[in-house]
Amino acid sequence: KIGKTHSYHSELIQFLNSLRETIENDKQIWKETDFEKVLQEIRPQLKVKQEEYAAKG
């Protein structure tokens, strides 16, 4: 179980890092994106994913 969590965690980190690189290289995103709103939309989805993984355990 811990191993599975760890691989999911590192996949998530990799994804976020690549996302960050994309965002850093795109000034337009910084001007036009409401990050607070984006986070509010993503948060429930992350919670659902977390619960799915916990249920699979």
Give descriptors for this structure.
57 residues; 3 helices
**Strand coverage percent:** under 5%
**Overall 3D shape:** flat
List unreliable stretches of 5+ residues. Answer: none
Order of helices and strands: HHH
Class from secondary-structure proportions: mainly alpha
Number of helices: 3
Question: Between the first and last Cα atoms, what is the distance in angstroms?
Answer: 6 Å
According to DSSP, the number of beta strands is 0
The largest sheet is: none
Helix content: over 70%
Mean pLDDT level? 84
Alpha carbon gyration radius: 14 Å
Number of domains: 1
What does the model show?
It is a single chain. The N and C termini lie close together (6 Å). Helices cover 89% and strands 0% of the residues. It has one domain. By secondary structure, the chain is mainly alpha-helical. The relative contact order is 0.09.
